[in-house]
Amino acid sequence: MSEQTSDLTKGLSRREKLDRYLSLLGPMVMIAALLIFMALLEPARYFRVSNFDIILKDAALYMPMAMAMTLVITTRGIDLSIGSVAALTAIIMGYMVKSYGFPWWAGVSIAISLGALCGLINGLIITRLRVPDLIGTVAMDLVYRGLALVLAKGVVLSRFPEEIVAIGRGAIPGFLPVPVVIGLSTLVLGYFIYTRTRLGRYAIAIGSNPEAAELTGVPVNRYKVYVYVLMGAMAGLAGVMLAGKLNAIQATSAPFFNLHVIAAVVVGGTSLFGGRGSIIGSLAGVLLLAMMLNALVTLRIEFFWQSVASGVVIISSVAFYTWMQQKDRDGQGSFKEALMSPENRRLGKFLLFLTLIIGSLFLLGWMFAGETTAVR
Amino acid sequence: MSPDLPPLIQMRGITKRFGGVTALEDVDLELNAGEVLAIVGDNGAGKSTLIKILTGVLRPTEGTIALSGQPLVMNSHSDAIEHGIDAVYQTLALADHLTPAANMFLGSELTKKFLGLEILDNRRMREEAERTLQERLGVTLRSMEVSTDSLSGGQRQAIAIARAVYHSGLKVLVMDEPTAALGPRETARTLKLIEAVREQGLGVIVISHSLDDVFAISDRIQIMRRGRRADVVNTRDSDTTSVLGIMVGAPAGQAQTDGASAHE
Ligand SMILES: Nc1ncnc2c1ncn2[C@@H]1O[C@H](COP(=O)(O)OP(=O)(O)O)[C@@H](O)[C@H]1O
Ligand SMILES: [Mg+2]
Predict the structure, then answer these.
(1) Do B92 and A195 touch (CB under 8 A)?
(2) Would you say residue A197 lies in a domain?
(3) Closest among A78, A29, A13, A68 to A267, alpha carbons compared
(4) Which of A140, A230, A344, B209 measures 20 to 30 Å from A361, CA to CA?
(5) Which is the closest atom of ligand 1 to the Cα of B227?
C-alpha cells in the first residue's frame, strides 16, 4: 500500500483514513507522552545522546523478532518460545565458535538456521499435530529452554569474536550502530514480505478468514509453517545480536523476549484476532517499548517492574484497539450507565467481598503474629 | 434451445447415497448457455448435494455428467474449475481484511519479476479487478483500497462473482442461496449481477428459497422433492402457486394454505 497515495485514499471516509494511520498514531502519541513525562522528571539523564544510543540498540534487538511476530499474529497465531529459541541458538553458536573454533560467520549462520529449524518444529506441531499455538509454543518454550540449560548448565559463555560483538553493539562511524542497521533491514524486508509477496498476502487471508483461504486454494498449513520458520530464524538472529551486545550468553538469557516483542507488536496496531497487522506500527511499537524500558531504568525503578510494565502495555493496547474496532459504540448509552449495569454491580459486589476477605485475613494474621524471621 | 445442439450441462440419472441415506435418486438436469436455471425445493430435498456433484466437490454414486455433449469426470473442485464450472459459496469465501482486488485474486495472484523474484503485481490486480467489476458486472466501488468488510452485501457478492468470471474459460456459474442473507435492496443488486452474467452467455444455476427472486431472475425452474426431480417448468408459463404445489407434492390448489416450509 504505497504508490500514489493521493489516488489510493480517494473515496475513503475520514474514519478509514484515520484507521490507516492509527497503528502509527497510537505509539507516536504514547512516545510523545513518555518524552514529556521524562522531560519533567529526569531530563538530564534521559535526554542524552549516549542514552538514545542505548535506546536504539535495545530497540534494534527487538526489530527482527517484531517483524516476524507481526506476521505470526496476523495469521491469528502466537509464538511464546522465541526467548528460549534465542538463548538456545546463541549458546550453540557460542560453543561452536569458542570450543570448536568455528569462524564467526559459520556460528552466526548456524544460529539463524537452527532458529529456523525450531520455528519449523513449532509450525509442524501447530499444523500437523493440531496443538493450539498457545499451548504448543509454551510447551516448546520449556523444551528449548531445557535444552539450553542441559547444554550450558550454569556456564556463562563470554568473550566472543569481535565480528559477533560488532553485530550486537558495533558502531559505523558517522552512521547508525550496526545492530540498528540490521534491525531496520529486517523491518524493510518485513514490509516487503507483507505487501508484495504471497507469504504476506496469505498471512492476512489466513488470519482474516481461514475457511475462505482454504476454499480459494491457499495452502493454509504450509504458509502457517513458513511464518513460524521466519519467526524462528529471526529469534535466532536476535540470539546472535544479544550475545554480541552483552558479549556473553547463558541458558537463562532473554527471559522477557516473548512479552516484550508481543507488547511492541500489539501496541503497533497488529490485531491479536488476526488479519490486521502493520510492520511500520511494529517499528513504532519497538521504539516505544525500548524507550519505556529505558525510562524505568533511568528512574532507577527495579528491573522486575519491566515485566509488570510490558504486561500492562499489552492489556491496555489490546483493549484500546478492540474498543476502536467496535462499530456501534454510540448505541451503548452513557459511560456511567454502562458502568452501573446490573451485571457490573454484581461483579463489583464480588470484588468488594473478596477485598474484605483478604483484608480480614491480613488483620487476623497480624493479630496472631509471633516472632519474625527475616526474609532473605 | 435448438434441439440438435447438446445442452451446456447434461446430468443424467444422478444418484447419491451417504451410507444409508439416499440424498439424490435418478436426478436429471439440463442447463443451456445464456440461461438461468433456478433449483427450488424444501430443506433436505437434495439441492446442495446436486450442485456439489456438478462442481466436483462430491462424486455421484451413479449417473453421468456431460459438458456440451462431452462426458465429464471430475475428481475435485479444481477439476470443475478447469472445465469452466465454478461456484460462489453462500459465505462468499472473502477475507474481510483484504482489499477487493486481493480477494478477487486470492489463491491465484498476478505476479511480476523483481530482481529475479516473483512478487505480487498489486497494481495490475487492482486494475484488472476494477475493470472486471465495471465492465462485466456494472459495479463501481467508491474506492479499490477499502477493506472488503466495509462493502455492502451486494458489492461483496460482486467480488465473489468477479473472482469466478475473471477466469476466461468460465461457462457455468453456480450460486447456492446468494440472496439468503441480504435485504431487499441488496437482493435487487445481486439479481442484477446474475442478469449480467447470463447476458455474457454463461449458464447460471441459482438455488434459492425465495420464489420471488426465482421468478424475477430465472428462465426455467427445476423443482426438487425428497431427492428426486419433481418437475422442470418454464418460468414464464408458471406461477408461485403451482411451483409451491409441486414442491410439497400437494394438488396445485392447496399449496398456498399448506405452505412450503412447514412440510417435512
Ligand atoms: N455429507 C452428508 N452425509 C450424510 N448425509 C448428507 C450429507 N449431505 C447431505 N446429506 C443428506 O442428503 C439430503 C439432501 O441434503 P441437501 O442436498 O443438503 O439438501 P438441500 O440443499 O436441498 O437442503 C439430506 O437428507 C441430508 O441430510
Ligand atoms: Mg442446501
Answers:
(1) no
(2) yes
(3) A29
(4) A344
(5) 14
